[in-house]
Amino acid sequence: MPEPASLAYYNDSTRAERYHRRKGFAPERTERMHQVMLDLLITLTSPQSTALELGAGTGLFTEKLLKANHFREIYVTDGAAAMLTIAQQTLESEHTPLHFVKLDFTTDWSGLFAGIGFDAITSSMALHHADDKQQLFQQVFSTLKPKGVFVLADHMAGASACIRHLLARERALVRLGRDGTEDPERVLEMINGDEERGRKEGNLCETVAQYQCYLDKSGFEDVDCIWRDYWLAVFMARKPMD
After folding, report:
1. Are residues 83 and 105 in the same domain?
2. Residues 87 and 106 in one domain
3. What is the domain extent for residue 183?
4. Which helix (H) or strand (E) element contains residue 6?
5. Do 68 and 173 have their domain in common?
6. DSSP string for 123-189
7. pLDDT tens digits, residue range 15-72?
């Protein structure tokens, strides 16, 4: 079975290192998004909980989980070995055990954690690579303990052609650096380049409404989009008591 496009793209040591140095795309926006995620996870779980991170990449959000000193242990997973290697090399913790697991969340993975039962599962800017998000969210649901929380942030698609253009235009302006001028031709060039890059990365973005529908159908309660900034969004969902 061929490797998914997203893993083939990120399983490159040079590209992974560049991603880690840049702290992803739009670092200031990402920082705010990560703070919202962290606040939710700490608020919705008890101290010394156990967490699983899907698509951890080079560990940018994992580092924030560690610094919070809230979780008893954290399972750090990613399907791209080059990304996970950087996470292993850069993340250190004296008090919180880290378990690094190479895991492609687009496959049937939940059996790997049978019997553990996580208090929290989280993911930052990764799940848009899954072609079957309904199946993915159902596996998240089955892997959580009752009353466990799922907090995810992801790259959203616009709900209409107009919204899709607004999101693409904003990303283009971020790449151009917002120097006070806007050249329509340069913006269009950036939009087209971003779309091509997204195809190479294996992006399969969907709308906020679609994500909420998948979470509802998976059996979660308290499902909502808590925060959004153009193409970025943070969701929460809770598994009911048995």
Report:
1. yes
2. yes
3. 161-193
4. helix 5-10
5. no
6. EES-GGG-S-HHHHHHHHHHHEEEEEEEEEEEEPPPSSHHHHHHHHHHHHHHHHT--S---HHHHHH
7. 878 878 877 778 899 999 999 999 999 999 999 999 999 999 999 999 999 999 999 9
